[in-house]
Amino acid sequence: MFRSSWPLVFLLVLAVGGGLLAIASYRRPKGKAEKLDRAIMASLRLGAFAVILFALLRPTLVNSSTVPQRNFVGVLLDDSRSMTLPGADGRPRHSFIEEQLAPESGSLLSALEEKFAVRVFRYSSSSDRVEFASDLTYDGTRTDLVGALDRVREELSSVPLSGVVVISDGADNSGKSLAESIVPLQAASVPVYTVGLGEDALEPDIQ
Fold first, then answer.
1. pLDDT (tens digit per residue) in 29-88
2. If we measure between CA atoms, which residue out of 46, 52, 55, 70 comes closest to residue 162?
3. Closest Cα partner for 181 from 149, 158, 157?
4. 62 phi/psi in degrees, rounded to 5
5. How far is 57 from 109, CA to CA, in rounded Å?
6. Is the dihedral of CA 117, 111, 148, 95 positive or negative?
7. Is the CATH number of domain 72-196 3.40.980.10?
8. Does an H or E element contain 151, and which?
9. What are the backbone angles phi and psi of residue 79, rounded to the nearest 5°?
10. Regarding beta strands 72-78 and 127-130, do their DSSP bridges make them parallel or antiparallel, or are they unpaired?
11. What does the domain layout of the chain look like in residue ranges?
12. Single pTM value for the model
């Protein structure tokens, strides 16, 4: 595509006028120049003029496709204590993370790694980069999703970031404004995907 600041009509008129001028300047014999010589000189002038016009158009290559292993995805894993609570199936909520993000055997991790370079982070009251989901301890006392999103955005700011995946059993309880972290990602066209764990609603406790 072209991103020239010059109006297209102006460049078109300039191209036609310059071409006619180049042809006219060599149409009449000059000195001992033969017809073939004049044709060659006119062609060279037209070529030089075409190069200048092409530069004024400011051609730009836009690549909107995802290049495997060159685009990045950040994966945020909730490392708070609530992830040890049993889910609807009676197993700890972090079982999903251990199964889906296990090296070599995790289906979610494998699917992501087919198209992206995956960077994994754990978060609770603070955020840290980890190599594997098995590095999580699930002993955090707070869920600071705002700080975690900021950490991912800052650490992956120098690479093409295609998206952020958040796996958690609850909302942010840090007291910060989530919009402050979401807006910069939206401005950079980076989508945020959420995977919720745990039950949708708590059963009433009648005693």
1. 555 556 666 667 767 777 776 777 677 666 666 555 555 558 999 999 999 999 999 887
2. 70
3. 149
4. -115, 120
5. 44
6. negative
7. no
8. helix 145-155
9. -115, 25
10. unpaired
11. 8-56, 72-196
12. 0.63
